[in-house]
Specification:
1% of the residues are buried. The protein contains four helices and no strands. The protein has 103 residues and is mainly α. The longest helix has 44 residues. The protein has two domains: 49 residues; 52 residues, no CATH class. The protein is elongated and about 80 Å long. Helix content is 70%, strand content 0%.
Length: 103
């Protein structure tokens, strides 16, 4: 059996390196998404189950102030319509999913 040339071995190592970098990038994206989901779940949980009405009020006010500038897609804005509705500012925020038709 003939030995592989140095160039062939380097090419194989570079292919392995590229594959590992791709796996790392995929894992980092997955971790980032998981962090966002968990943080969002915490915020929604606190809005629904906080024993501190003043905190819940301040958190709701902050979200109503910050979300409109953060959300750019119409479909995303629809997902938070109940939260962004200023008329419901004094009512508890419902985080139960609603049926929304996205076009």
């Amino acid at each position: 059996m003939a030995r592989k040339s140095i160039e062939q071995r380097l090419a194989e190592l570079e292919a392995q390196r590229s594959a590992l970098k791709a796996r790392l990038s995929k894992q980092e994206r997955a971790n980032d998404t998981r962090r966002k989901v968990l943080l969002g779940a915490l915020v929604l949980h606190r809005l629904e189950h906080s024993n501190d009405p003043e905190f819940t009020k301040r958190l709701g006010e902050w979200l109503r102030r910050e979300l409109p500038g953060f959300l750019t897609r119409d479909g995303d804005k629809l997902l938070f319509a109940d939260l962004l509705d200023a008329k419901n500012a004094s009512q508890p925020i419902s985080t139960s999913p609603s049926v929304v038709e996205l076009t």
